[in-house]
Structure to design on (572 residues):
């Protein structure tokens, strides 16, 4: 319903005006993207797919997000990429690199070069068959091969966060997508230099180009590290959550803004910032990342909607369709074969070897940026071909890729292994955690016998029930103490005489989150569980402290299971 209303609103605006101010446009982007994300989440499809489809509707269909708007919103896109890089850095702590470091780098180069080689050969063959120009075809193949090595960290990581994954496959995916952009940039610079030489337009030497690129990467890492030191220093003097968020966002904005001056991809410096904070202040940084995680959803939604708005299906020539198919097929084969070989060679766990390849297929920001850069560096025909192949393939893999990421982590058994207490509470009902055999007291039980019940039980809260097992009140140790203050009457009091009224009750099928919220609101340590509304038949007891202990134990158990999976020896 919400999605239908959003779409109707968008269509109405589209009919009335062809130009929107940025505030109104952003409202449509966030409303449409969020509605689609909720719908696709209900359909058990990654939310990012819905956001991208909304972007296509707003861009290619309704033409509300024009290329001019996309260009104006480039600073926002850079900030979103920076935020994604920063959150990736949170996962790359020193202990992770100590445990998986060699595996990460072997797999990184194996899958990147695998995609580069297969796409370069396949694309060159198709272009040569169509154009008959051998050197021009090889040039196209080299550039497309280099771009193919890039993986979209945003879409991939968004799926991992959405499904709360944890384990060796998740760790490998996070590390690869975090470092993959640097490898793609390195390959692109070399490929672009070779392509220019083949086209007779090259001016700089391969050595000079490589040195410039290595300098950019080193500078990006140094910039992120310095920003991390600054944020670390500032957070020493701040405890309030709102101020922590202010300083973290300010540091990230400054970092992204400085990166944009020499046109450096903000992901690498932002990731370095995240790694620096995560390792310099491991405890306090968890609060920083948690605050940014709550702030980030509208940013992510807008970013993926804008990514979908880049598509222009009307400009695709028939022979380019073949090139796109070859590009996707060869890139998929290269990523999967390269990941398998790298994981096997480095001794990675079996789940990494089996499923890492299908988790590295989404492609977006860096690939699009390199394609646009290629369009500026080469002649119109070559540039147009590269842009259309990459943009269309990126769109298709942004739709299919997140679903494949979900399949991979599900097959690896890592979904739901990184949940928090709040996440678990949202998935439980009262029945899942209630005490089904609470110690109850008959309403006609004398006070002296009540004391005997106390001596054999650790509870501090006792439901009082009648002959039909219906709850008539509650007794706590505190109010029994008050009764014994008056020894003259204590001897003839019954449970029904000292019982307090039941302030609230719940039912087995009630969401646990709702029941615990009522307990917090009314300051209740315990709550009786009855059969249904209007019923007093006692079925169990909800103990606030016991529930929290159970939830915490389950979180620790899942994380322990995920960490133990990393030690499983590869087989086969």
């Amino acid at each position: 319903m919400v999605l239908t209303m959003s779409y109707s609103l968008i269509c109405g605006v589209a009919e009335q005006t062809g130009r929107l101010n940025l505030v109104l446009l952003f409202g449509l982007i966030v409303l449409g993207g969020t509605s689609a994300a909720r719908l696709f989440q209900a359909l058990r499809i990654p939310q990012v797919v819905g956001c991208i489809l909304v972007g296509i509707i707003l861009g290619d269909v309704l033409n509300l997000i024009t290329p001019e708007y996309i260009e104006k919103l480039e600073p926002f896109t850079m900030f979103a990429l920076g935020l994604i890089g920063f959150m990736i850095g949170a996962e790359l702590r020193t202990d992770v690199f100590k445990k998986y470091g060699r595996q990460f780098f072997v797999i990184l180069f194996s899958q990147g070069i695998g995609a580069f080689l297969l796409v370069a050969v396949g694309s060159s063959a198709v272009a040569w068959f169509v154009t008959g120009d051998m050197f021009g075809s090889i040039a196209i193949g080299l550039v497309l091969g280099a771009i193919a090595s890039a993986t979209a960290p945003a879409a991939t990581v968004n799926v991992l966060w959405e499904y709360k994954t944890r384990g060796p496959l998740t760790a490998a995916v996070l590390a690869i997508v975090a470092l993959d952009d640097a490898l793609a940039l390195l390959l692109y610079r070399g490929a672009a230099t070779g392509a220019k030489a083949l086209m007779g337009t090259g001016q700089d030497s391969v050595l000079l180009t490589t040195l410039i690129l290595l300098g950019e990467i080193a500078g990006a890492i140094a910039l992120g590290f310095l920003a991390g030191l600054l944020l670390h220093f500032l957070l020493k003097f701040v405890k309030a959550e709102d101020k922590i968020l202010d300083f973290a966002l300010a540091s990230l904005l400054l970092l992204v803004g400085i990166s944009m001056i020499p046109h450096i991809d903000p992901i690498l410096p932002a990731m370095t910032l995240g790694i620096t904070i995560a390792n310099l202040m491991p405890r306090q940084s968890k609060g920083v990342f948690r605050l940014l995680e709550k702030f980030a959803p509208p940013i992510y939604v807008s970013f993926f909607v804008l990514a979908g708005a880049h598509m222009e299906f009307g400009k695709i020539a028939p022979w380019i369709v073949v090139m796109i198919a070859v590009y996707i097929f060869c890139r998929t084969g290269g990523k999967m074969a390269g990941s398998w070989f790298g994981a096997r060679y480095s001794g990675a766990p079996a789940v990494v070897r089996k499923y890492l390849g299908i988790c590295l297929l989404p492609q977006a920001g860096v690939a699009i940026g390199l394609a646009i850069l290629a369009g500026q560096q080469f002649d119109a025909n070559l540039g147009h071909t590269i842009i259309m192949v990459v943009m269309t393939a990126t769109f298709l893999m942004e739709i299919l890729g997140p679903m494949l990421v979900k399949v991979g982590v599900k097959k690896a058994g890592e979904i739901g292994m990184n949940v928090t207490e709040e996440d678990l509470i949202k998935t439980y009902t009262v029945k899942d955690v209630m005490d089904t055999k609470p110690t109850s007291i008959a309403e006609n039980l004398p006070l002296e016998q009540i004391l005997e019940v106390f001596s054999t039980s650790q509870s501090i809260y006792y439901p009082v029930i009648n002959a039909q097992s219906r709850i008539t009140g509650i007794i706590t140790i505190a109010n029994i103490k008050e009764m014994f203050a008056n020894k003259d009457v204590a001897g003839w009091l019954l449970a029904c005489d000292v019982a307090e009224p039941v302030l609230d009750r719940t039912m087995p099928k009630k969401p646990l989150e709702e029941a615990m919220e009522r307990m917090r609101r009314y300051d209740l340590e315990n709550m009786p569980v009855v059969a249904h509304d209007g019923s007093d038949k006692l079925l169990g007891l909800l103990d606030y402290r016991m529930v929290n202990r159970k939830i915490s134990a389950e979180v620790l158990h899942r994380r322990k299971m995920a960490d133990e999976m990393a030690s499983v020896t590869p087989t086969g």
The two ends are 50 Å apart (CA to CA).
